[in-house]
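Crash report, auto-generated. Payload:
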Amino acid sequence: MIPASVLDEARTRLEDAGTDGVEATGLIVAGPDRVARHAVFPDQRAGDPPSSDTHPGQCTGQWVEVTERGKAELAVALGPDETYAARIHSHPGVAFHSVADDANPGLCYEGALSIVVPFYGLGLRAGLETCGVFVRRGRRWLALPPGPEREQVIHVAP
Amino acid sequence: MTSLPNEPNERCVGVTVRTPAGASSAFAVEPGDTAGQLTIRALQHFERLDLIEPGAFRIGLLRGNAIVDLEIDSLLLPAGVVEGDVLHLLTSEPQVDGAGIVPAAMVRAA
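Recovered output after restart:
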């Protein structure tokens, strides 16, 4: 369950990055009850070619990478009883899971969630229905279109 | 001269290892254990439970509000690991999201 306030917090960060014309990425923290508590946006960089050689010559402009410092920030940000339940990031246009999104090792475990927010975060103003929601099952990201199946996995509380 | 089993330099210590997502489990660290050995043991454990997927990882020691990176061949106890410490697995792979990266096949075809 994700309180709307957590999504608002995330939306603000995504839109802020969007005003600079770049994507942003964060992780949503949940307690043992699987209720989301807040979002963490670690140190990241966007808009330049990826630092690794895994995507040489394949960048067409929009991507965001959590830095090594950011990875450490994510580890430190977790309380003893907390886990990361979902990844949330923005796209400049429509919401889909790109090749990079699929390959991102940042949050890969059975049942993890990935939320893609369209239009640099603005899409979240209309609610989660406008976003892409994906769940990790069998080491693949499966799309959860709006509807009952999505509602069983992720529920937004007012 | 021999050491008694409970002398500090001969004891194993209990630590907690956490995945990047925050799943945690307890592990015993023997005096001769390296960071690399603990990393492998932890990965095998978490993979069995579907709490992590295969990949390249390193391990860091939580100290206050910072993570201290440990070289894979570092002996953990001499490196300062003590009873009750928390260590974090961190991915060594790029953590990239975004709409702008396209498959190599598409680039070649363009």
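Post-recovery validation: Chain B touches chain A at residues 18-24, 50-53, 55, 60, 62, 65-67, 88, 90-91, 93-104, 107 (CB under 8 Å).
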